[in-house]
Amino acid sequence: MDEQLSPGQLVVSMAGRDRGKYYLVLEKTVNNMVRVVDGEYRKVSGPKKKNVKHLAPMPQTHAEFAEKLKSGRKITDLDVRKALKEMLSADSAEPE
Where are the transmembrane segments (predicted)? Predict the structure, then answer.
């Protein structure tokens, strides 16, 4: 998967014990790895390191979350849960 993942982007895990779980990208690391958070089990203080090959990127990026990351402001687990809830509820509300 050569797609670039950006901080604040919604992704879904495609491999591992957390298959099917939604995360927000917190940061990129080396060797095609990213740190992801969900604000509940994978908190900002202990993000999960995932290989990008094991993630399916979703088209949505939470602008407010991404801006906080970019500006260096503190991100809380509540911010993460709120962003995920907004993005997932908006995704399910879209007509097909």
Answer: none
Q: Do residues 72 and 57 make contact, with C-beta atoms less than 8 angstroms apart?
A: no
Q: How far apart are CA 15 and CA 50, in angstroms?
A: 10
**DSSP letters of 20-81?**
T-EEEEEEE-STTEEEEE-SSSS-TTSPEEEEGGGEEEEEEE-HHHHHHHHHT----HHHHH
Q: Taking the CB of residue 18, how many other CB atoms lie within 10 A of it?
A: 18
Cβ count near 88 (within 10 Å): 14
What six digits make up the tokens of 24? Answer: 């927000």
Instruction: Give residue-wise pLDDT tens across range 64-73.
Output: 999 999 999 9
* C-alpha angle 8-40-48 in degrees, rounded to nearest 5: 60
**Amino acid present at 57:** P
Set out the domains of the chain in order of their start, with CATH numbers: 9-93 (2.30.30)
